Each structure stands twice: as C-alpha cells, then as structure tokens.
C-alpha cells in the first residue's frame, strides 16, 4: 500500500472556529493583534519622523499642494516628493491629528490591522481554507520582523503600500479592473516597492493552489490593470527627476554610488538569507544595519547564493504538484526584488523592507504548521483534536508576538533607539553621530561647567567614532559642528558646517541655519563680512528650503540681532505657520515685541499661540517672563498668569 491508514479516523476538516462565524473569528484575530500593539500609543516620534512630519512645513501649507506634482517640489525640497501619495496622506493626517504622537501611532496600528484584514479576505477569495487565511493574518500581524514598520510613524509608507497593493490584488481577483488599476497606482504612489504586486497576483492566480486556474485572458487583463498603476508612477518619477533613480547619481548616502553595484549585490545575498532566518526565527533584529560591500567569491556570498538559488529552484519545481509551496517561495522572491539593492537605496538593509515580502512567507509557514497540526491530531485523543491542530501555529504566533513586543520597545524614543542601534551596529556612523547630537542637545544651559565639559567630551567621542566609520557622511560633520557651537568655538563650527554641506546631497536646511548663525560670531572677522555671510547663507537656504521652520526661526533671530525687526517678525511668523507646535519662534517673537516696547502685541501673540507656549521648556518660559516681568505686568497680568503655569508672575522680583 502506498499510504498507511491511520488507526482511527480523523475528520477531514474539524471546526477550528468552535462554532464562531468567519467574520467574528477575523475580528478576534485583529483584536489580538491590536492588543499586542497597544504599548505603541505611548511612544514618541523617532527616526525620520522629525523630517517628514514634525518639521515638515509643507504639511502646514495645503494651499501649495498642487506644486507637489511639478518640478517645484524638487526645487523646494519637499520631503518624499517622489512618493506623492504619501505626502498627500501625511498632509491630510496632520490636518486631522496635528502632532499627537498617540494618535499617529494609533493610525499606524489601524493601517497594520487593515493590511491583515485585506490579506485574509484576498486569500479567501482565492479559495484558501478559513484556518489558513486566519492563521496567515495572525502570523503576519504579529511577526517580530514588522516591529519597525509599525512602531515608526514615518515608515507607514510600507503599511500604506501593502494595504493598497493587497487591496488592488483583491480587486483584480474579483474582476474589478478599474479599481485594481487605481489601487495599484495608489500603492506605488505610497512606495514603489508595491510595484511587485502584479507579479504576486499572477503567481497566486496562475498557480491556483485552491481553485481551477482562470482563463489566460482573465490573467492578462488582471496583470495589465495592476501594471498600469505601476507604470503611471514610474512615468511620474521619470518626468519629475529625469530618471528612475530619485536619489541622484551623486548621492553618497546610496552605497552602490560609492563602491559600485557589484559589491552591493554580492553583500545582498547573505542579507536576504538573513531576512528569511529572521522571519522564521526572530533573532538578530536591529534598528540599524551598516552598509557594506562584498565579493561574489566570498564564502558567505557563495553559500547564501547557493541556498537562495536552491530555494528558488525548489519553488519552480513545485509549481505543478505543490502550487502552494511554489507561491510561498516564488512570491517572496518577487516581492523582495524592489528592495534587493538592484535599484539605488539609501539603506542596504532594514527590517521594514520585508513588510510586504513576508506575506507569502507567512502563508507558506502557516500552511506547514497546520499540516504539522493535522499530523499531530492523529496521535491524540479525540477531545484533543482541535488543540493539536492549532498547537504548532499557536506556539509560533506566541513566540513571534512576544519577541514583537520586545523588538517594538526599542522605538519608544530617540535616546533609547540610538543607544540600542549603537550596541547592535557598533560600526554605524549614523548611530554614533545621532547619539553625539542627543548628548549635546540634552545638556541644560545652566548646568555646572564641569558637567558640561564631561557631557561634551562624551559627545566628542561619539562624533569621532562616527567620522572614523564614515568620513564621507554629513552626519559626523554635523555632530562636530553642533558640538563646536555648544562650546562657542565658532571657527570650528563654521568649518564643520561647510564640510557637511560639501558632502550632503539634501536635507540641508539645518546646515544652512547653522552656517548663518555661527557666521555672525566668527572672531577676527569684520562685522560687515560676518553680516554678509549670514545673509548669504540665509538667502541660499531659504531659496532651497522655503518650508523649513528651523531656517525661518534662525532668520528671525539673525534679523533681530541685526536690528531689522520687520524682517525678524516676518520670519518668526512664517516659522510659526510652518510649525505651530514648536515654541522656539514664538518665544523669540515675544522677546522681539517686548524689546520694541509692544507688550500688548506680545501678550496677544502669547495667548493666540498658547499651544506652542505650553510646549516650551519650563526653563525657557521662566527666563522669558522673568526678563520682561515689568513689561508684561502692564497689560492684563491675569491673562499672562493663565498662560504661565510655572507661576513666575505670581511672585515679586
């Protein structure tokens, strides 16, 4: 006999839902995923959240939205202009949520739950059994490798691309070609990694693990509809940038631009094998990985290449007899192509890159675990059949979810994040530079001289390590520049800012602001020269970064010092418009108005922008009110007291 019969009958499809309706069961899975993610509501903004959300003045200028689809978006350095859908989404969410980090994290959790729900629904439309669809959604929802994509607000581009991309695949499977094309367009407008969705859809429908294969004409129509959305975004990118590479051929942040494509591709083979290991066994997760090259003759590259080639070959061999295995393997390869370093990327490796490619991996792993559960159920008493069937899957989901909670905790704030990043990637220039700047920024202005000297020495060690690991990177130079400015070593600060500007391809608003400010304090330099330098750096910076609240606030302070109050007020006002939650420009503007003898206007502004006032550090509020106590008392002191929670005005000098 070719098959040994079990000693006792096993039901072909026991009720794994315990009588629950499929919809209610899916809601239960989503509720479990949401519960695991609840701690994220207490997290702060980290990583690129400051650049894309907190200090992105373009989000506060909805009237300028039309320029996003013109070359002006590049000229004005609108963040993420090559992802127009994401910029529009961020603009809308900012108008609705402001800068409430709990609300933005809640939105990320909701998007992740949406991806899980659409994934389960698409699998059901493809004909997948209910336990397989729900199990895939559960494992995907709690996969430890997804901690970064969900915990960092600015990485919701991956969530949006996956949500819209899977929704496009669902629409195509239902024969809704227009909806599929529009959803595919939306997915790629969030992030071009969704450009591999047509390949995944073709594999899922063509291999057809659970139902008869659709006619070739239907497959062609679906693939064409999905490809139209991808093509539209590619045309937009070429029209805007003149090439498919939005980063530019001279961008030193792209490692392949430094060492060539070959060494980067060689290093990518072990990286992608490590991704697979991290999905199956959640070990080695990190918020930071260091870019590096390799040779195709290296043992690690040869072994990884052989393993991946064998896996791909096995997937192809399973296409007829084991289509589900082929879908899991070949689908993962297809979805990983956009982030395989074949195309220029500023980071060679990041956990978030595997958010979408993990979909078919989770499908294959859940199918394997359910098969193991069915085998196990043959060897247990009848009343334990259900437990045995779900036990392997439940164990893996619990392990992944537990590691997920620990992995997500890394992203609760920048200090903790970069501390862990340095530990896990000790040769990361970015981690050392970020830690150095955090040390400088967190030194209190009134700290004792010895404490300041000790803190600055720690920061300098980080800056030196950062420069040693990558001397061609702008962040180590910025670390040194801001440290020198804190030490009031203006020539060193000016020199480091210039070095940073020479190697930095973009995001230079802070560099121009720093150059303009330190130029006014250069020793042994004529006053007219210093003034001209400051004005020139401001003009150049504001022309390139008109949506930078930091640059406008710096311009206000400089014109204040130069005795030009009208220009100072213009820039303070613009800075407040571009970042109404940030207090620096408000405090400086109030200071200017009081210096001009206009306490009425100062008080009115303070009460009008009370949110920014309350966001300021208590020491800054205290210093400002203490300095101008008499002037502020002349105008409605009770109103000032209401905006002065530290109670400075309640006490006589």
UniProtKB/TrEMBL annotation:
The keyword Kinase does not apply. The keyword Repeat applies. It comes from the Bacteria. InterPro entries: O-mannosyl-transferase_TMTC, TPR-like_helical_dom_sf, TPR_rpt. TPR repeats lie at residues 549-582. Keywords: Membrane, Repeat, TPR repeat, Transmembrane, Transmembrane helix. The chain crosses the membrane at residues 24-47, 132-153, 159-175, 182-203, 223-243, 255-276, 296-317, 324-343, 355-372, 384-403. This is Glycosyltransferase RgtA/B/C/D-like domain-containing protein. It comes from Nannocystis pusilla. The lineage of its organism: Bacteria, Pseudomonadati, Myxococcota, Polyangia, Nannocystales.
